[in-house]
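Q: Make up one entry.
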Amino acid sequence: MGAFFGHALPGAVFYLTGFWSLVNVLRVVVVGAPFIHRFWYPIDTRLTQKPVEPILKIVVCVIGVLIEMGHSARWQIHDMEGNFINMNDLQHSTMYISFIVASFVDILSEKSSKLRGLDALCYFVCFSGEAFLFYFHLHGREMVDVQIHICLVVASAICGVSAVVARWKSSNPILSITYSLFVMLHGTWFIQAGFLMYPPFHEKTPALNLMDPGAMMYVTNLFLAHILVLMVLLLLLYFIFTIITPPVKQQKHYVKHQKSDLGSPMYKTVPSSVHFYVDSD
Protein backbone atom coordinates (compact mmCIF):
# COMPACT_ATOMS: atom_id res chain seq x y z
CA MET A 1 0.00 0.00 0.00
CA GLY A 2 3.07 2.21 -0.07
CA ALA A 3 1.96 3.95 -3.27
CA PHE A 4 -0.94 6.03 -4.53
CA PHE A 5 -2.71 3.07 -6.16
CA GLY A 6 -2.43 1.06 -2.95
CA HIS A 7 -4.53 3.69 -1.19
CA ALA A 8 -6.84 4.48 -4.11
CA LEU A 9 -7.97 0.85 -4.61
CA PRO A 10 -9.40 0.22 -1.11
CA GLY A 11 -10.57 3.82 -0.92
CA ALA A 12 -12.62 3.50 -4.09
CA VAL A 13 -14.17 0.22 -2.88
CA PHE A 14 -15.15 1.68 0.50
CA TYR A 15 -16.56 4.84 -1.07
CA LEU A 16 -18.60 3.03 -3.73
CA THR A 17 -20.07 0.48 -1.30
CA GLY A 18 -20.92 3.26 1.17
CA PHE A 19 -22.48 5.36 -1.58
CA TRP A 20 -24.54 2.44 -2.90
CA SER A 21 -25.76 1.73 0.62
CA LEU A 22 -26.67 5.38 1.17
CA VAL A 23 -28.61 5.55 -2.10
CA ASN A 24 -30.66 2.47 -1.23
CA VAL A 25 -31.41 3.66 2.30
CA LEU A 26 -32.54 7.07 1.07
CA ARG A 27 -34.81 5.53 -1.57
CA VAL A 28 -36.60 3.53 1.12
CA VAL A 29 -36.82 6.53 3.46
CA VAL A 30 -38.27 8.85 0.82
CA VAL A 31 -40.80 6.29 -0.39
CA GLY A 32 -41.88 5.69 3.19
CA ALA A 33 -41.66 1.90 3.06
CA PRO A 34 -40.68 -0.40 5.95
CA PHE A 35 -36.95 -0.46 6.48
CA ILE A 36 -34.53 -3.05 7.84
CA HIS A 37 -30.78 -2.45 7.84
CA ARG A 38 -28.57 -4.58 5.65
CA PHE A 39 -24.89 -4.48 4.68
CA TRP A 40 -25.30 -4.97 0.95
CA TYR A 41 -28.00 -4.31 -1.61
CA PRO A 42 -28.90 -6.18 -4.80
CA ILE A 43 -28.37 -4.55 -8.17
CA ASP A 44 -31.65 -3.88 -9.99
CA THR A 45 -30.86 -5.89 -13.14
CA ARG A 46 -31.17 -9.48 -14.28
CA LEU A 47 -28.64 -10.18 -11.50
CA THR A 48 -31.08 -9.08 -8.77
CA GLN A 49 -31.09 -12.55 -7.26
CA LYS A 50 -27.29 -12.75 -7.12
CA PRO A 51 -24.99 -11.33 -4.40
CA VAL A 52 -23.06 -9.19 -6.87
CA GLU A 53 -21.77 -6.66 -4.33
CA PRO A 54 -20.21 -9.20 -1.92
CA ILE A 55 -18.65 -11.09 -4.84
CA LEU A 56 -17.11 -7.90 -6.22
CA LYS A 57 -15.69 -7.07 -2.77
CA ILE A 58 -14.17 -10.54 -2.55
CA VAL A 59 -12.56 -10.18 -5.98
CA VAL A 60 -11.12 -6.75 -5.24
CA CYS A 61 -9.79 -7.83 -1.83
CA VAL A 62 -8.14 -10.92 -3.33
CA ILE A 63 -6.47 -8.66 -5.89
CA GLY A 64 -5.36 -6.40 -3.04
CA VAL A 65 -3.79 -9.33 -1.16
CA LEU A 66 -1.95 -10.50 -4.28
CA ILE A 67 -0.65 -6.98 -4.96
CA GLU A 68 0.49 -6.47 -1.37
CA MET A 69 2.18 -9.82 -0.99
CA GLY A 70 3.54 -9.59 -4.52
CA HIS A 71 5.92 -6.94 -3.13
CA SER A 72 7.24 -9.45 -0.61
CA ALA A 73 9.91 -11.79 -1.90
CA ARG A 74 8.55 -15.34 -1.58
CA TRP A 75 5.99 -14.01 0.91
CA GLN A 76 8.66 -14.00 3.59
CA ILE A 77 7.98 -12.38 6.96
CA HIS A 78 11.51 -12.75 8.37
CA ASP A 79 15.02 -12.86 6.98
CA MET A 80 17.78 -15.39 7.56
CA GLU A 81 18.86 -13.52 10.69
CA GLY A 82 15.41 -13.77 12.28
CA ASN A 83 14.45 -10.12 11.71
CA PHE A 84 10.84 -9.49 10.71
CA ILE A 85 10.40 -8.02 7.24
CA ASN A 86 7.49 -6.99 4.99
CA MET A 87 5.31 -6.19 7.99
CA ASN A 88 3.54 -3.33 6.21
CA ASP A 89 2.47 -5.68 3.42
CA LEU A 90 1.36 -8.28 5.95
CA GLN A 91 -0.81 -5.80 7.86
CA HIS A 92 -2.42 -4.51 4.68
CA SER A 93 -3.10 -8.08 3.54
CA THR A 94 -4.67 -8.87 6.91
CA MET A 95 -7.10 -5.99 6.39
CA TYR A 96 -8.08 -7.30 2.96
CA ILE A 97 -8.50 -10.87 4.24
CA SER A 98 -10.82 -9.73 7.04
CA PHE A 99 -13.14 -8.10 4.50
CA ILE A 100 -13.03 -11.23 2.34
CA VAL A 101 -14.34 -13.18 5.34
CA ALA A 102 -17.02 -10.53 6.00
CA SER A 103 -18.17 -10.68 2.36
CA PHE A 104 -18.58 -14.46 2.57
CA VAL A 105 -20.62 -13.98 5.75
CA ASP A 106 -22.76 -11.44 3.85
CA ILE A 107 -23.69 -14.18 1.40
CA LEU A 108 -24.26 -16.85 4.04
CA SER A 109 -26.38 -14.61 6.29
CA GLU A 110 -28.75 -13.97 3.39
CA LYS A 111 -29.18 -17.70 2.84
CA SER A 112 -29.93 -18.50 6.48
CA SER A 113 -31.84 -16.33 8.94
CA LYS A 114 -30.05 -18.14 11.77
CA LEU A 115 -26.86 -16.32 10.82
CA ARG A 116 -28.48 -12.88 10.86
CA GLY A 117 -26.49 -10.58 13.09
CA LEU A 118 -23.25 -12.40 12.37
CA ASP A 119 -22.63 -9.97 9.52
CA ALA A 120 -22.65 -7.05 11.97
CA LEU A 121 -20.17 -8.85 14.20
CA CYS A 122 -17.89 -9.50 11.24
CA TYR A 123 -17.94 -5.88 10.10
CA PHE A 124 -17.27 -4.74 13.64
CA VAL A 125 -14.25 -7.05 13.76
CA CYS A 126 -13.10 -5.89 10.30
CA PHE A 127 -13.29 -2.16 10.95
CA SER A 128 -12.10 -2.23 14.56
CA GLY A 129 -9.36 -4.66 13.57
CA GLU A 130 -8.28 -2.30 10.82
CA ALA A 131 -8.23 0.57 13.32
CA PHE A 132 -6.10 -1.57 15.64
CA LEU A 133 -3.69 -2.46 12.83
CA PHE A 134 -3.25 1.10 11.65
CA TYR A 135 -2.86 2.46 15.17
CA PHE A 136 0.16 0.20 15.58
CA HIS A 137 1.27 0.88 12.02
CA LEU A 138 2.99 4.14 12.88
CA HIS A 139 6.28 3.22 14.51
CA GLY A 140 9.09 5.50 13.39
CA ARG A 141 6.93 7.57 11.03
CA GLU A 142 6.89 11.34 10.58
CA MET A 143 4.32 13.24 12.64
CA VAL A 144 2.12 14.25 9.67
CA ASP A 145 2.11 10.65 8.44
CA VAL A 146 0.96 9.64 11.94
CA GLN A 147 -1.77 12.30 11.88
CA ILE A 148 -3.10 11.03 8.54
CA HIS A 149 -3.29 7.48 9.85
CA ILE A 150 -4.91 8.55 13.12
CA CYS A 151 -7.74 10.12 11.11
CA LEU A 152 -8.10 6.80 9.30
CA VAL A 153 -8.18 5.00 12.65
CA VAL A 154 -11.00 7.28 13.82
CA ALA A 155 -13.04 6.66 10.65
CA SER A 156 -12.49 2.88 10.90
CA ALA A 157 -13.48 2.73 14.56
CA ILE A 158 -16.70 4.68 13.96
CA CYS A 159 -17.55 2.38 11.05
CA GLY A 160 -17.17 -0.63 13.35
CA VAL A 161 -19.36 0.81 16.09
CA SER A 162 -22.02 2.09 13.70
CA ALA A 163 -22.19 -1.33 11.99
CA VAL A 164 -23.25 -2.96 15.27
CA VAL A 165 -25.64 -0.18 16.28
CA ALA A 166 -27.28 -0.08 12.84
CA ARG A 167 -27.95 -3.84 12.98
CA TRP A 168 -29.08 -3.63 16.62
CA LYS A 169 -31.62 -0.89 15.85
CA SER A 170 -32.19 -2.21 12.35
CA SER A 171 -35.47 -0.39 11.68
CA ASN A 172 -33.90 3.05 12.22
CA PRO A 173 -32.69 4.39 8.85
CA ILE A 174 -30.77 7.25 10.47
CA LEU A 175 -28.31 4.75 11.92
CA SER A 176 -27.94 3.09 8.52
CA ILE A 177 -27.31 6.48 6.94
CA THR A 178 -24.66 7.17 9.57
CA TYR A 179 -22.98 3.85 8.82
CA SER A 180 -23.05 4.55 5.07
CA LEU A 181 -21.61 8.04 5.48
CA PHE A 182 -18.68 6.88 7.58
CA VAL A 183 -17.91 4.04 5.17
CA MET A 184 -17.78 6.69 2.46
CA LEU A 185 -15.57 8.86 4.68
CA HIS A 186 -13.33 5.86 5.24
CA GLY A 187 -12.98 5.55 1.47
CA THR A 188 -12.43 9.20 0.66
CA TRP A 189 -9.80 9.50 3.40
CA PHE A 190 -7.95 6.48 2.05
CA ILE A 191 -7.77 8.21 -1.33
CA GLN A 192 -6.84 11.51 0.30
CA ALA A 193 -3.99 9.80 2.18
CA GLY A 194 -2.67 8.57 -1.16
CA PHE A 195 -2.74 12.10 -2.59
CA LEU A 196 -1.01 13.55 0.46
CA MET A 197 1.76 10.99 0.88
CA TYR A 198 2.18 9.72 -2.67
CA PRO A 199 0.96 12.49 -5.02
CA PRO A 200 0.40 10.95 -8.47
CA PHE A 201 1.27 14.23 -10.17
CA HIS A 202 4.40 14.85 -8.12
CA GLU A 203 6.07 16.84 -10.89
CA LYS A 204 3.28 19.45 -10.56
CA THR A 205 2.27 18.95 -6.93
CA PRO A 206 5.08 18.85 -4.36
CA ALA A 207 4.91 16.14 -1.74
CA LEU A 208 3.66 17.15 1.70
CA ASN A 209 6.35 18.04 4.23
CA LEU A 210 5.66 15.31 6.78
CA MET A 211 7.54 17.17 9.53
CA ASP A 212 5.71 20.49 9.19
CA PRO A 213 3.51 21.32 12.24
CA GLY A 214 1.32 23.45 10.02
CA ALA A 215 0.65 20.43 7.84
CA MET A 216 -0.79 18.64 10.86
CA MET A 217 -3.38 21.40 11.29
CA TYR A 218 -4.07 21.28 7.55
CA VAL A 219 -4.68 17.51 7.67
CA THR A 220 -7.09 17.87 10.60
CA ASN A 221 -9.03 20.58 8.79
CA LEU A 222 -9.06 18.49 5.62
CA PHE A 223 -10.55 15.53 7.49
CA LEU A 224 -13.41 17.71 8.75
CA ALA A 225 -13.88 19.07 5.22
CA HIS A 226 -14.45 15.51 4.00
CA ILE A 227 -17.20 15.08 6.59
CA LEU A 228 -18.87 18.35 5.60
CA VAL A 229 -18.78 17.52 1.89
CA LEU A 230 -20.38 14.13 2.57
CA MET A 231 -23.11 15.84 4.61
CA VAL A 232 -23.82 18.16 1.68
CA LEU A 233 -23.92 15.14 -0.63
CA LEU A 234 -26.44 13.48 1.72
CA LEU A 235 -28.72 16.51 1.62
CA LEU A 236 -28.39 16.75 -2.15
CA LEU A 237 -29.30 13.09 -2.66
CA TYR A 238 -32.25 13.38 -0.30
CA PHE A 239 -33.49 16.43 -2.20
CA ILE A 240 -33.16 14.62 -5.54
CA PHE A 241 -35.04 11.56 -4.31
CA THR A 242 -37.87 13.66 -2.87
CA ILE A 243 -38.35 15.11 -6.35
CA ILE A 244 -38.12 11.93 -8.44
CA THR A 245 -39.80 9.49 -6.03
CA PRO A 246 -43.52 9.69 -5.21
CA PRO A 247 -44.49 8.44 -1.72
CA VAL A 248 -46.17 5.06 -1.32
CA LYS A 249 -49.59 6.68 -0.70
CA GLN A 250 -49.55 8.21 -4.17
CA GLN A 251 -48.67 5.00 -5.99
CA LYS A 252 -51.38 2.75 -7.33
CA HIS A 253 -49.73 -0.56 -6.67
CA TYR A 254 -47.48 -1.83 -3.96
CA VAL A 255 -46.45 -5.39 -4.69
CA LYS A 256 -44.61 -7.70 -2.35
CA HIS A 257 -42.76 -10.29 -4.38
CA GLN A 258 -42.04 -13.74 -3.14
CA LYS A 259 -38.77 -14.32 -1.35
CA SER A 260 -35.74 -14.35 -3.56
CA ASP A 261 -33.13 -17.08 -3.58
CA LEU A 262 -31.22 -14.99 -1.07
CA GLY A 263 -34.04 -15.24 1.45
CA SER A 264 -35.05 -11.56 1.43
CA PRO A 265 -38.45 -10.39 0.18
CA MET A 266 -38.20 -7.73 -2.49
CA TYR A 267 -40.60 -4.82 -2.50
CA LYS A 268 -41.20 -2.68 -5.51
CA THR A 269 -43.75 -0.17 -6.62
CA VAL A 270 -45.57 -0.46 -9.89
CA PRO A 271 -45.38 1.34 -12.26
CA SER A 272 -42.69 3.40 -10.53
CA SER A 273 -39.13 2.73 -11.68
CA VAL A 274 -37.84 2.96 -8.13
CA HIS A 275 -36.92 -0.41 -6.64
CA PHE A 276 -35.78 -0.98 -3.11
CA TYR A 277 -35.05 -3.96 -0.95
CA VAL A 278 -35.59 -4.75 2.68
CA ASP A 279 -35.09 -7.78 4.87
CA SER A 280 -37.81 -9.54 6.75
CA ASP A 281 -37.71 -9.75 10.53
